[in-house]
């Protein structure tokens, strides 16, 4: 094979590789892009958002340990619970946000809050003597205007 033919073959092969890799990147981008509300699987999901503040880091730690146990149960046993998470405030380690997202309101009221695991969680928190300095909860329906 002559040098110029070999060079053309290598150039064509390199272009094909670039097109293949570039196509794969574009394909991955389009298949994983975040979708706005009209593409959401669960329309008008039901949320419970609770903010609380503890008297001590020990109370917060105990609460989060119990929450973690409950979260494992929820993940395994409540398929209509879409999200079940906590977050600690960056400005105050005693403030915690609890974020619960359900496919519909009955998944919270008729399933989650009536489960034996939830009753055990509430009992464990009470037995530990945890009292909140502040606790505020509010439920919401998503508007489906953004993405999740």
UniProtKB/TrEMBL annotation:
Keywords: Membrane, Transmembrane, Transmembrane helix. Residues 49-123 form the ABM domain. It holds the Pfam family ABM. The chain crosses the membrane at residues 12-31. This is ABM domain-containing protein. It comes from Elliptochloris bilobata.
């Amino acid at each position: 094979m002559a040098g110029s033919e070999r060079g053309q073959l290598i150039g064509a092969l390199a272009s094909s590789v670039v097109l293949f890799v570039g196509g794969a990147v574009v394909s991955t981008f389009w298949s994983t892009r975040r979708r706005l509300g009209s593409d959401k699987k669960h329309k008008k999901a039901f949320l419970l958002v609770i903010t609380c503040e503890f008297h001590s880091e020990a109370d917060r730690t105990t609460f989060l340990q119990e929450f973690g146990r409950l979260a494992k149960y929820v993940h395994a046993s409540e398929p209509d619970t879409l999200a079940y998470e906590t977050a600690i405030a960056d400005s105050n380690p005693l403030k915690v946000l609890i974020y619960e997202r359900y496919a519909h309101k009955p998944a919270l009221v008729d399933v989650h809050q009536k489960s034996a695991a939830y009753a055990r969680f509430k009992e464990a928190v009470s037995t530990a003597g945890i009292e909140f300095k502040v606790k505020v909860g509010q439920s919401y329906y998503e508007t489906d205007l953004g993405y999740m």
